[in-house]
Write a structure and sequence with these properties.
The protein is mostly helical and 402 residues long. The chain has 15 helices and no strands.
Length: 402
């Protein structure tokens, strides 16, 4: 009993420990469920599984609201006090948010198998956990006296949008669900990941790369989330042929930062290079979005399908997530900030997942080839996060080394 109490005390001693732990579990559960669904639909091994909701909608919900937010809340609850010299998030506050969100994720899987009523309970649990997490962050934000709250302001506002979008999903209204799917990418994930990248990548680089000049333009921090909001609106109203007008400036801004932040120099230090490579996907993804929009504008063809979407979700979001989670896990457990060969190999394999998923959407492939790409990329994702989980999860219930 004493050992169990000690284990629980260590495991719950910091917000990133509990949130990253369940985020890693969700990375395995979410994609395992998706592979089971794909295998039923495409391989003929068994009949397609009858879920209580559309599997495409369930996949979108799990990835946008059931996977990334665990890492987002764990990271922000750790960094908000440091960004603004504010008070730490109280243990009871982050534990309450975590327990509701984790319970909601479990109930969601149960609801997919059994009942829409259980799904609605899952949504309510998510809403409660999200609201408690946002409240805990806002307490730090509002009480801090630091003059620079730009990054914290953006992340706080978009997490507020996230709660509203979740409420829309819980309403079971088709229009609000469609808004939540698009808004989850452009109103939540992109602004959060960009704000974190803008704040942290130059800071980490300056500590490693000799004679490094920090480039962190304020105008880009304002422009990119604003353009992302416009993209989301244009996509929702069916004007994808005109998103290039915002996609191209975002692509150029991201490519400029990739160069200004010294991508090449960062590769000498893998744990830093992981962040830079992940961010480089942002520029590539927005270039693909711009290209797709221009092709649609001039030819009427939707040529690249979901290739840009997976470039940004797997290439940018997932890569930066793995890089940042690795860094926080090591640094806040008192270990050396060093990505060993296994970690570097896992990360490079994750880049292959993004490439495979992009290729699966390109024109000219037959149905069988696309199926192989779908399943191959999903299986490789699962393998990457499985190995990462085996390597790092135990750290969350281990005490800091002396």
């Amino acid at each position: 009993m004493n050992n169990l109490v000690k284990w629980w005390k260590i495991f719950t001693s910091a917000p990133h420990r509990v949130f990253f732990f369940w985020g890693a579990i969700q990375s395995l559960l979410t994609v395992s469920w998706w592979i089971a669904d794909l295998a039923g639909r495409y391989t003929g091994l068994y009949a397609p599984i009858a879920w209580t909701m559309s599997s495409v909608d369930a996949h979108a919900f799990l990835m946008i609201y059931g996977f990334f937010p665990f890492f987002i809340f764990g990271f922000l609850m750790t960094t908000f006090p440091r960004w603004m010299n504010g008070e730490e998030v109280e243990r009871k506050a982050y534990l309450a948010a975590f327990l509701f969100l984790a319970s909601g994720s479990i109930m969601f899987y149960v609801g997919l198998f059994l009942s829409l009523i259980i799904l609605r309970i899952a949504y309510l649990l998510f809403l409660t956990g999200w609201g408690l997490g946002l409240y805990a962050l806002l307490r730090v934000y509002l009480r801090a006296k630091h003059p620079d709250k730009r990054h914290a302001t953006i992340t706080s506002v978009v997490l507020g949008f996230g709660w509203l979008l979740l409420a829309g999903i819980a309403s079971n209204n088709d229009l609000l669900i469609a808004i939540a799917k698009v808004g989850g990418i452009w109103l939540i994930l992109l602004p959060v990941f960009f704000a974190v990248s803008h704040r942290m990548i130059p800071f980490f680089s300056a500590n490693v790369i000799p004679d490094y000049k920090i480039v962190r333009p304020n105008w880009i921090l304002a422009v990119v989330p604003s353009l992302a909001l416009i993209h989301g609106f244009l996509e929702l109203v069916g004007w994808q042929a005109w998103t290039w007008m915002v996609d191209l400036p975002m692509a150029l801004s991201a490519i400029y930062l990739t160069c200004a932040w010294h991508l090449r120099d960062s590769l000498r230090v893998p744990i830093l290079g992981m962040l830079h490579i992940g961010f480089a996907w942002f520029g590539l993804a927005m270039a693909l979005y711009a290209l797709q929009s221009l092709i649609l504008c001039f030819t009427g063809q939707w040529l690249l399908a979901k290739a840009p979407l997976h470039a940004i979700t797997i290439g940018y979001f997932s890569s930066v997530l793995m890089a940042m989670a690795t860094r926080v896990t090591l640094g806040h457990s008192g270990r050396m900030l060093n990505a060993d060969r296994l970690t570097w190999g896992i990360f490079l394999a994750l880049q292959s997942v993004a490439i495979l998923r992009i290729f699966s959407e390109l024109p000219g492939l037959d149905f069988l080839s696309r199926t192989h790409f779908y399943l191959g990329s999903a299986l490789l994702w699962l393998l990457c996060f499985w190995i990462w989980a085996i390597k790092y999860l135990a750290i969350y219930w281990q005490d800091r080394p002396n």
